[in-house]
Amino acid sequence: MLLDTASLYFRAYFGVPESVRAPDGTPVNAVRGLLDFIARLVEDHSPDDLVACMDADWRPQWRVDLIPSYKAHRVAEETPAGPDVEEVPDTLSPQVPVIEAVLDAIGLARMGVPEYEADDVIGTFTARAAGPVDIVTGDRDLYQLVDDARGVRVLYPVKGVGTLHMTDEAALRAKYGVDGRGYADLAVLRGDPSDGLPGVAGIGEKTAARLLAAYGDLAGVLAAVDDPRSGLTPSQRKRLIEGRPYLAVAPKVVRVAADVPLPPVSTALPGEPRDPAALEALAERWGLGGSLQRLLAALSLRAAR
Asked: Do the Cβ atoms of 55 and 6 come closer than 8 Å?
């Protein structure tokens, strides 16, 4: 099980009232919400291994070099040495180091790699996995990793993690007209304003799906542009020709990396905390209460099975 951790703690932050606070009054709604999320995932899905994948760099320079608008609207402060500071709610930012410290004290694997996003870490773990993989994320970008043959699916939170939409290739075809392999090509053509990706002007999601159904993949669509006998309409051909500079670089930006240099890490679920003293101090300092106890109970029960 691979967690898109930032996606989940953002959802926890907005889903759990800010009145959930530490003894000193500091909000810990994202911390406690995430712990409850993970406890529920362990209880409901009983994974053998779990990794909390992190954004060591939420806006890698190599992606910005290819498409300067990539996530540009979410930059709160530019950092010449990188990475830039992301615009995050004031009361969420201080909770992220607490989340990291708690996960480490519990002994849950946590992985972020400089110059890569959590999506890339997830893509690399998925590529290396010998067995089935569940990816837990609220980000549709990771639909591109769905692969029925390898048992890779996305669990997309609809309401907390109590209600997860299980996304396999049948679900993708029903909603988008593509399988996992085709989703990245669809995203390239359609674009994504939330990530600052313009897409091809005039090519929306439905048109992109029709083009991919007709020509197989993005390479096939581009080949059709150069084939006067293809079934492209004049306007589609014109838009794709005008979009060629973008289409030359967008696939590398949109597709998650599968070759991130991951350091060795033990991904097995711990049956008991790695550092009980540190965890007890964190629990007392931040008032983690029942949320932490529920997670520890879920991990203990999983280990006993």
From this structure: yes
